[in-house]
Amino acid sequence: MSTKNEWKIKPTSSALSWRYSRSSSVTVGHRTITPTLFSSMDSPYPTYLPQSWGVSTNPEGNLYFTRATSPRIVTDANLYDSDILQQILQVVDVVEEKLAAFKSTNSETTEIFLELEDDETCSYYLIDHTLRVQFWLEEVSTDDLGMRASASAEHLRLDLERLYWMHVEYFPAHECRGLNLAVDELTDIMIHGHTDQMTSTTSTFPYSADECARFIKSLETLKGSAHCPSTYSKWSIARMWQNVVDQRFLIHYGQEHARVASNISILDINVSSQTLLFKICDTLGFKAPQTYLRSLNEQWVDEIAHSNRWKSFISACEVDWKMSLLVSFAILISPIASSKIVAVPAILLCNAAAAAAIVLLIQHGPLAGRNHASDVSWYLSNADSRRFGLQLTAITFSLPRALTLWALIISSMQVPVVVLGLKLAAICIGGAAAFLVVLSASVKIAGPISFWFRGLWSGLRGYFHRAPPEQSSV
């Protein structure tokens, strides 16, 4: 075990917490219940801690320990273990010696968090309840703390406040001197977000209008106990504040170049240019890949995802894929066996379109579970490649529609084949195709042709998914 002078103290942050990634195992078994166990007549043997130390429980179930002095010490190390207790007490002396050099620090509203890494190293950070920030006693890079890049000192402060609220969420059960939950301010922010979501399609607020309404209702209930909040109230409010401040950081709140709409890019990020592969697929796919790429890029502006907009986008995609599945099935059961040259390609295209639609529906349907913003960010960040961007995803999403349209075109060729004969129909179709290619190259009619196909597709989809007629009530 290290002595007091051998401890290595290193900065950490709430963002680097192992709280949700720790793996541990517990052995369970049957036990004997002694008479009067846990009743008022029972006198259990107490578990002792040093003077001023106490134990608390987070609403999620984690134990943590605090020292009720100035500054207050917080740790999630198991102080019931005597060896760990001695290690923490040594580290406390080291950190307090470093803190003593900063005479301007208000120790009454300051907390020190300690996390043992091994027998020689302990991580730490401090929080200030008055100013709502997390801070350290030495110079440290934001990259080493798991924080994000910032544009200015004021922008950095927003991320430090986010870390502060993470700490309050993780350790809300003890008395916090100087803690101000600012419930009234948070309620006003939620009201603004509620209005913004209802009146704008490009709102940057992280919650939907319905979610904001529920939060406002909860906050109105919590206002009565704001002067003496419970552990659960502090946890809930801290979680809400954390997401609000995180959103402010992402939109560069209070900065010269603030993001006032979710579809506006304000960061200098290299955008992948369209590759030759994408252009070929886009032409063959009747511009469907371009449509999907535009929508996907709107979901990933400056690499920021919005769960509400993603849900709407995926819902629209599902309608499109289901429509492809329906049309493909209709072509397969139609009498297209008049010519094998026409029937075989049409059947193969229908099968490919149906398979692509089914796979996409399984991967991105309701059971996929990508409803939270973090899940959407994970998905889009993995789909976003340095060379292609989201182009490959757009091509994949457009496959059912493109293959179905090609199946429609090929299956419709059975009419000239039956009427004119195979050879004459092939000559007529080939000549028409050559004429369209030449005309397309000269007057650039690819746009109008693709527009016509998109209009046909939208009309078919609207017909099959039209709303039922309203019934008059008596």
Give the strand content: 5-15%
Give me the oligomer status: single chain
List SSEs in N-to-C order.
EEEEHEEEHHHHHHHHHHHHH
Question: Termini separation (Å)?
Answer: 83 Å
User: Which spans have pLDDT < 50 for at least 5 consecutive residues?
Assistant: 435-440, 442-446, 466-474
Number of helices: 14
Structural class: alpha/beta
The major beta sheet can be summarized as:
7 strands, mixed
The 3D shape can be described as elongated
| Structure summary, number of beta strands | 7
> Helix fraction?
40-55%
Which structural traits does this protein have?
8% strand; disordered C terminus; seven-stranded mixed sheet; 474 residues; alpha/beta; elongated
If you had to describe this structure to a student in words, what would you say it looks like?
By secondary structure, the chain is of the alpha/beta class. Helix content is 51%, strand content 8%. It is built from 14 helices and 7 strands. Strand 4, helix 1 (82-100) and strand 5 (110-116) form a beta-alpha-beta unit. It is elongated and about 90 Å long. It starts with 7 loop residues before the first strand and ends in a 10-residue tail after the last helix.
Short overview:
The chain is of the alpha/beta class.
Please render the helix and strand layout as text.
Layout: E1 8-11, E2 53-57, E3 63-67, E4 72-75, H1 82-100, E5 110-116, E6 121-128, E7 133-135, H2 153-170, H3 183-199, H4 209-222, H5 231-250, H6 276-284, H7 288-299, H8 307-333, H9 340-364, H10 373-383, H11 391-411, H12 414-420, H13 422-443, H14 446-464
Helix pairs in contact: 2-5, 3-4, 6-11, 7-11, 8-9, 8-11, 9-11, 12-13
